[in-house]
Amino acid sequence: MKTIIEPFRMKVVEPIRLTTRADRERLVADAHFNLFGLHSDDVLIDLLTDSGTGAMSAAQWSAVMRGDESYAGSPSFYRFRDAVQDLMPFRHVIPTHQGRAAEAILFSILGGAGRVIPSNTHFDTTRGNIEATGAEALDLPCAEAADFASVFPFKGNMDIAALDRLLGERGAAVPCVMMTLTNNAGGGQPVSLGNLRAVRALATRHGKPLIIDGCRFAENAWFVKQREPGQQARSVRDIVRETFSLADGMTMSAKKDGLANIGGWLALNDEELALAARNRLILTEGFPTYGGLAGRDLEAIAAGLAEVVDEEYLRYRVRCNEYIGERLLALDVPIVQPVGGHAVFIDARTMLAHIPPLAYPGQALAVALYEVGGVRSCEIGTVMFGRQPDGRELPARFDLVRLAFPRRVYTQSHADYLVEVFAEVAGARTQLRGLRIVEEPRLMRHFTARFARL
Ligand code: F0G
């Protein structure tokens, strides 16, 4: 059959509160044109993030009831640890309340002034946690990543030559090498096993541990199976195991490919590092057999990990994004290609070429998608990155809008509706106006800035 169906049926439903365009124009104006300020029950299709927003399965909900809330030594912890080690063969698995807590613990040990931590591209919270220790977070994406129209299959890859140069010239300052799978900041683009092996070889040659940010590891493995020569006959599970056996540790947000609503972990092979991390964990998160989580959360993650490597699930997951991407391209909406594993990114700077970057074309598009169709997306551009540490405002490298898809939540008719919303917005694109910021905080302004229409 050509139609790839959602490989699940629904047992519990969550009603969507329908609103009119007039309602939404008022609501978004009341929120000062900042979509983070909306109440989520005023949103029809919420594509703000794929993080913690997925639907759990019947098996996960029944595992929740099995959660044992003992302070120390809970069987829920051991089920969680075994489920992690089944896919990611690390010696020490340390639960945390979400991904950034794992990052904060890791870099409180490995970071510090004068150090530099390279990655294919750090996610914002990783960068933040590295910089908070005084260290430098360095992005070394492959050259193809900068070209939105290139259909290179592994735009998440590391620039191997640049990493080699860095380790040669400043090796003493590098405490570890990081790889983010998939590369979220770069559009949800995957990393090839070949690239990961090359990074491993360089790290080994220079005696550096390799740490994987594994948030979307299953989506990455699916792309490897689909796109990398010689990988087609392997199971996703097998590719996942090879991926992590190439590394010395990982940070994880279980809110993505853990298929859970909260949770994360730090996993390590090194005994001494794990001891230091557990000591830090006790200060900031909790005892090592629960981290910042309830026993029921650990159970939900354990069950989620068994489901996320299901290949029918991954086929459906990635196909949804491709379907939307194809239909947007047919409407001449410029998108980052190929579409990533968890999101479709719109190139708003190209789509709304009449709005200059400092009038925030990404924000203008995101507001229009909400007004026209109640769709909530996220600007990733000059609003997010434009304010410089010295106070100046400059255009970001790009102005994108991210449509991030929660896992197992929306159906094909939601996708068709989304495309219809885009058709209407694209038809009126020349009438869209830019915005100006009337109030902003000193840091992370995109969350709370207030805008007015130009
Ligand atoms: N690493 C990556 C690649 C991420 O995408 C995220 C979160 C984190 C780490 C941090 O994990 O949220 O559990 O603390 N990304 C979300 C997003 C917030 O919308 O992309 P966390």
Q: Describe it for me?
A:
The structure is a single chain. This protein is of the alpha/beta class. It folds into two domains: 21-50 and 310-453, Alpha-Beta Complex (Aspartate Aminotransferase, domain 1), CATH 3.90.1150; 58-308, 3-Layer(aba) Sandwich (Aspartate Aminotransferase, domain 2). The strands form five sheets. A five-stranded mixed beta sheet has the order 2-8-7-6-5, with helices on both faces. It has a three-stranded antiparallel beta sheet with strand order 9-12-11. The protein is 40% helix and 13% strand. The mean pLDDT is 96. Bound molecules: ligand F0G. Ligand F0G binds at residues 49, 51, 98-100, 123, 125-126, 180, 184, 213, 215, 253, 255, 264, 404.
